[in-house]
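User: Continuing from earlier, I have the next pair ready.

Assistant: Great, send them over.

User: Here they are, in order.

Assistant: Folding the first of the pair now:
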Amino acid sequence: MGCIGAPPLIDAMRAALPPAAAVIVGEPSGLRPVTAHKGGAGFFVTVTGHEVHSSLLPQGVSAIMEAARLIGWLNDQNTTLRATPPSPVAALFDPPHTTLHTGLIRGGTAGNITAGTCTFSLEFRCVPDEDPDRWRAAIRAEAARIEAAMRDVHPGCAVHLHEYFGLPPLAPEADGAAEALIRRVTGDNGSHTVSYGTEAGHFQARGYSTVVCGPGDIAQAHQADEFISVAQFEAGGRLIDRLVDTLAE
């Protein structure tokens, strides 16, 4: 998760191997060539509050309720982004805007105690023409604002953000060797983008011509019954055969 193993792998490749003419990242694209995907970053957030009995609420700081303020800010950003007309680049994606999300949360010790700690995950996925560092700064600024208000009640309160992954976007390449190769093999000349992230952004950022193409559908992933159809699996094998034959010509 987060493609965190890719950067050291790519650095080792660059140091030990001849430069590759093209990189094909085999993520689920229905075997269509994908030339752009979103980038982003993920954080683990730890909110430290101040425990008191819930009947004395104003004297305490609930880490859960303060975490909810930051999560609510994420939702407000999503609402604004959905209502903003997309740029030409953003319009290529579904959804056609940057998204912010919380997928995990845990905190508290009892229903009648203001929560001493709350931890949750936070991620954003931004379109290639937006600066990920701007979103990093905005998130940290909002966390700092919430922290300052918490410390007005108790000085030991805090909001700590640990970034556990950062993923560059994949952007379309002018006359990209990887795109030309995979289009030759698949015969697909359509324009395809995805909103999930892959190692392709890391490869491209380190100078490789890169494209995403693989069997399956992201809609079938990360479900209790995650699967890839037999037809797509077999078609993926045939794609590899054609790729080898093409490179051997």
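And the other member of the pair:
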Amino acid sequence: MSTTRRSLMAATVVAPLAAPAMVQAQGSSWRPDRPVTLIVPWAAGGSTDQMARVVAVELEEAFGQRFVVVNQPGASGSIGTRNVLQAARDGMTWAAGAAVDVGCYKVLGLLDTELRDWHLFFTVANVNTISVNPASGFRDFGQLLQALQQRRDIAVGTAGVSSAGRNMMETIRQSAPGVNYRHATYDGGNPAVLAAVAGEVPVVAQLLVEMAEMIRGRRLIPLAVQAENPITLAGFGEIPSVRRWLPNMPAPLNYFGIWAPRGVPEHIVASMTQVWESRIRNSARLQEYAQNRAAVFGPLHGQAAHDAAWVMVRQTAWLYFDAGTARVSPDTVGIQRL
């Protein structure tokens, strides 16, 4: 399997904390003296929550202190992210999520922040996927696409206005004439997936990592991934690229990780950078998680992380504008069209 198809597995076991000597040996100049809060601005069980819990174990071992994951869902992730912005800039409160959200909150009018306002540390990139309940009657994306062009009442579950699933559906709408759907929003990717499994909605568009177990269990049928090429999910098989039907549909990588706002002391950022280079870049846990759930294992930080995320921010910000959901024109906040 190529490096662009490795994927993740949520860790629920609390690993023993590293001794302070390990932190010193790694050259870290920051060791928190109390538990660090890692805010996940989405419901438990979703892609951000899964990733954050794996990362928290790695950071606990590296720094010799607890990293406590706290779920604060609401307003497309902006509530939890705002709480991190409003917290003391002492390195004790970090946010987790998708970088594209942080980069587009200002365009949506949800939060006055931009990608450059944060110190970015990425772990994986996730793949948008559209799946259906087995009772829906759809067996490939072509059938669903035709139905979306002929009807306006097909409900599609997503994690909200700025979610990966909504972005995928709006990109499909831009790429195929006449597509319409009824948007059903939930408090996170996991609730949206479970709604499709239960038959509350026939279709769900979210991240593959959030659907992987339900797909392997044949509770959902994956129709297409928003990727340049087909993706192989371990224990299931190959899922076709949406480009089989829509050859020109954009498919930028959707990077996930943790971040702290500018203003956090530089020695803390330097310590996290050192841990990212020495530990996260070689994390067997994250590589296993990625391989199991068909995500891209790609730790990045600093300017490299910003540049990698910027591609999707530009595409998504103008997607919002063209769909009529933007409150602010992207070009007024320095986001030019691709």
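Worth noting for the second one:
The chain is about 40% helix and 20% strand. The domain at 3-126+252-333 is CATH 3.40.190.150 (D-Maltodextrin-Binding Protein; domain 2).
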